[in-house]
């Protein structure tokens, strides 16, 4: 086989013998070689996505920034609806007692008073002087027929008398329950008109009687009254016993 045909056949055999040696030396042929281009297959499919990597460590906080400028106040919002009442809170401890208040007046006003005058000369001793000129006796606690005041409201009372003295001496006493409480004596001066007076505070119980009376057995009943001279007797309730009423 000489000539051109024989030369071509020898060349092919040499190339075929050379390629297996290269494949034996390296299973992965260099893609740049002519054999790689001649023996390359179709491209493979893309692989699956890999797993996400682990989170990195948190970074350190940066420096605090400067305070920003205050913004403009926004418009006032609409008034909200009233919410539901809240639950009752726990009961507090009792407070300390306050100071005692002043004693008030009762709804009922207690009244007892009289003011009377003499219309004639006093009677003889040892009998009550009957003052029959009535200035005030609205509650009728004074009896003009007996000359005695009868207590209907227990409490503290004030009594006073102012007597004109004429013609003879005067010695009178204020009585409470048949017992003389105070005495007044005035010695008459001739050709003159004198005055005798006295007053006292007494606590009375219901039913107690108070009156004026000439004291003693002598001629000491110079109590006098006329159209220009008066002899008076009076008394009134200062305050009642509220624990009784």
From TrEMBL:
Alphabetized UniProt keyword annotations: Collagen, Hydroxylation, Secreted, Signal
Stored InterPro entries: C1q_dom (IPR001073), Collagen (IPR008160), Collagen/C1q_domain (IPR050392), Tumour_necrosis_fac-like_dom (IPR008983)
Ranges for region Disordered: 44-90
Signal peptide range in chain numbering: 1-24
GO cellular component: collagen trimer; extracellular region
Name of the gene encoding the protein in the UniProt record: Adipoq
Record's protein name: ADIPO protein
Pfam families, A to Z: C1q (PF00386), Collagen (PF01391)
Domain (C1q) ranges: 107-244
Cell compartments where the protein resides: Secreted
Superkingdom per UniProt: Eukaryota
Basic and acidic residues bias: start-end ranges: 54-81
Gene3D superfamilies associated with the record: 2.60.120.40
């Amino acid at each position: 086989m000489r000539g051109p045909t024989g030369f071509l056949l020898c060349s092919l055999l040499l190339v075929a013998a050379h390629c297996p040696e290269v494949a034996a030396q390296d299973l992965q042929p260099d893609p740049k070689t002519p054999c790689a281009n001649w023996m390359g297959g179709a491209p493979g499919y893309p692989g699956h996505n890999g797993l996400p990597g682990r989170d990195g460590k948190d970074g350190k906080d940066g420096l605090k920034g400067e305070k920003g400028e205050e913004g403009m106040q926004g418009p006032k919002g609409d008034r909200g609806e009233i919410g539901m009442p809240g639950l009752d809170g726990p009961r507090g401890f009792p407070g300390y007692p306050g100071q005692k208040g002043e004693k008030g007046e009762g709804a009922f006003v207690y009244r007892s008073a009289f003011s009377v005058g003499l219309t004639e000369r006093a009677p003889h001793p040892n009998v009550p002087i009957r003052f029959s000129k009535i200035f005030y006796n609205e509650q009728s606690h004074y009896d003009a027929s007996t000359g005695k005041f009868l207590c209907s409201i227990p409490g503290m009372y004030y009594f006073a008398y102012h007597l004109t003295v004429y013609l003879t001496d005067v010695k009178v006493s204020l009585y409470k329950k048949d017992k003389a409480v105070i005495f007044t004596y005035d010695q008459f001066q001739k050709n003159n008109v004198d005055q005798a007076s006295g007053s006292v505070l007494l606590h009375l119980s219901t039913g107690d009687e108070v009156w004026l009376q000439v004291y003693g057995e002598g001629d000491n009943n110079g109590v006098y009254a006329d159209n220009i001279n008066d002899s008076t007797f009076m008394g009134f309730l200062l305050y009642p016993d509220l624990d009784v009423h």
